[in-house]
Design goal:
This protein has helices at 5-17, 73-81, 95-104, 108-111, 131-137, 170-187, 212-215, 229-236, 240-248, 256-286, 318-321, 331-337, 351-359, 373-376, 436-457, 470-478, 484-488, and strands spanning 48-54, 83-89, 121-122, 141-146, 163-166, 193-199, 293-298, 304-305, 311-312, 322-323, 325-328, 340-347, 386-390, 395-399, 403-410, 413-420, 465-466. The chain has 495 residues and is α/β, with parallel strands linked by helices.
């Protein structure tokens, strides 16, 4: 247990949040969207920072990771320009939990933010700063463009943001982000900015518009799966529950042709998100900003297609937690890392410390993540321990370099699974009963991490309650959320 953690909140609150103002929302009248002047002065030579999350993107469906389809030419081009981390892992198969670890550099039990739920949710405590609030305290202007759902500002994703807006899809979100980048750089060219861009484009239901709906699909497919949003709305109406039933109710789980068609549509949605990313990167290039910007692209979790008996992202296997992570840097660091591939296990909690390090901002002591710059400069990598959690779903995962422990505690029962990833990368053989020594070691490590998280939270007041209005509830239903509470009890889980 790190002794600095129990006192970390008070120190960081004074550093990053003492002058925090409510984030602004844009009415579109000004390209800058009401972004306020940042506090402090940015370190000399600090680059702009752009953090992109392509929600629900599993690493092995990215062509740069070896996928045979050209799903991600834009992301591949960024990988050629920067460094690709081959073994990056998320801290939850759920959006809010994973993204908050990305934002704070903390394990889920330390930041305490869960999925939005009608029975009650909590905002990130003000005493826990985000990447945005730390950058803002050191002179950065900060803004986010996200598609709502479980990255709504109310959960704390607007913490440290001068502006946090909602977008409708990848195209509009990336276009707005490009507009903000242009406006911010023109307004104060010597003051760097931080932008967060998020899209649900690859999230279910997989109904990408033309031409993406047919880009990878078999033209001879004659099954019942809905392949367009227009068709889905026509047969189900606007209500999420009806849409969910209409979409997944037409999937014949035992039919491999149907399962492949789902993958085809998912890949088409990925390509649509990637094309929007490519247009955004091209705009930054045209503005002359790529040469002075650190750009990071990642995802919060992956998606399953029956590899372990389910669809969507309710479990903790590789397809759920192995995510892409690509970083590009300006200047000499960019040249030194161009086209590099790193095989060392890294975590999403390492992203925030890395970007603080890139900005010349001190990385707070006591974070679970560490900067990856020493690794890129020839040093050692981060600790090879990844803790992933979905507290509301009773799921806990611990991964070491070559071993993985998955524990599930739900009303319907409990299970423990242990896998040797070096010999069983597809996680087919449960060794929990055969290797009690390894099981005990991983459980002890998990207990240590849990104790450290609880020590960190000692003395930190709970975040304020999040209340969902009717519009928020419908938005979450449209994304397939608000079923988590029943799923956690084994009732009404995703198909």
């Amino acid at each position: 247990m790190r002794p600095t953690r129990s006192a970390l909140a008070a120190v960081l609150l004074a550093l990053a949040c003492s002058d925090r103002t409510a984030p602004q929302s844009s009415d579109g009248a000004d390209a800058a969207g009401g972004v306020e002047a940042a506090r402090g002065t940015a370190p000399d030579g600090a680059p702009n920072i752009v953090l992109v999350s392509l929600d629900t993107l599993r690493a092995d469906h990215v062509s740069a990771y070896g996928y045979p389809r050209q799903t991600t030419p834009a992301l591949d081009a960024l990988a050629d320009r920067g460094v690709l981390f081959e073994a990056a892992y998320s801290h939850s198969p759920k959006t809010a939990v994973s993204h908050m670890s990305l934002f704070t550099g903390l394990h889920p039990d330390a930041h305490g933010v869960g999925q939005l739920a009608r029975s009650g949710s909590r905002r990130l405590p003000d005493a826990i700063p985000t990447l945005a609030s730390l950058l803002r305290a050191h002179g950065y202007r900060t803004a986010g463009v996200a598609e709502g759902g479980n990255v709504r500002g109310e959960l704390g994703f607007d913490q440290g943001m001068d502006l946090y807006e909602r977008s409708d899809d990848a195209a509009s979100g990336f276009a707005r982000a490009a507009e903000l980048a242009e406006s911010l750089s023109a307004r104060e060219p010597r003051r760097p900015f931080f932008l967060f861009v998020h899209t649900y484009e690859a999230h279910d239901p997989y109904v990408p518009p033309a031409p993406y709906d047919a880009l990878f699909a078999d033209p001879d497919y004659d099954g019942a799966i809905v392949s367009s949003l227009e068709e889905l709305l026509a047969i189900s109406g606007e209500k999420w529950r009806s849409q969910h039933r209409a979409y997944w109710g037409r999937v014949e789980k035992s039919n491999p042709v149907d399962v492949q068609h789902l993958r085809d549509l998912y890949d088409g949605a990925i390509r649509r998100a990637d094309d929007a990313l490519g247009a955004f990167a091209a705009r930054l290039e045209a503005l002359g900003l790529m040469d002075e910007t650190a750009l990071v692209v990642t995802s919060d979790h992956g998606e399953e297609f029956l590899e372990h008996g389910s669809f969507l992202h309710e479990q903790g296997f590789q397809e759920h937690l192995h995510v892409p992570l690509v970083m590009t840097f300006p200047g000499e660091r960019g040249e030194a890392t161009r086209g590099r591939r790193e095989s060392v296990v890294v975590r999403l909690v390492d992203v925030a410390p890395t970007l603080l390090d890139v900005a010349g901002v001190p990385v707070p002591a006591g974070l679970d993540g560490v900067s990856l710059l020493p690794l890129l400069e020839g040093g050692s990598g981060p600790p090879a321990v990844v803790v992933s959690r979905w507290p509301q779903g009773g799921l806990t995962v611990l991964r070491s370099r070559s071993w993985k422990l998955i524990q599930v505690r739900r009303r319907g029962g409990a299970s423990t699974q242990l896998f040797d990833l070096s010999r069983d990368p597809e996680e087919r053989r449960n060794l929990a009963s055969e290797r009690p020594d390894m099981l005990a070691a991983l459980e002890a490590e998990l207990a240590r991490v849990s104790a450290a998280a609880h020590a960190f939270r000692d003395g930190i007041a709970e975040g304020s309650a999040v209340r969902l209005d009717a519009r928020a509830i419908e938005e979450l239903r449209a994304l397939g959320y608000l079923q988590d509470e029943s799923a956690a009890t084994g009732e009404g889980a995703a198909p």
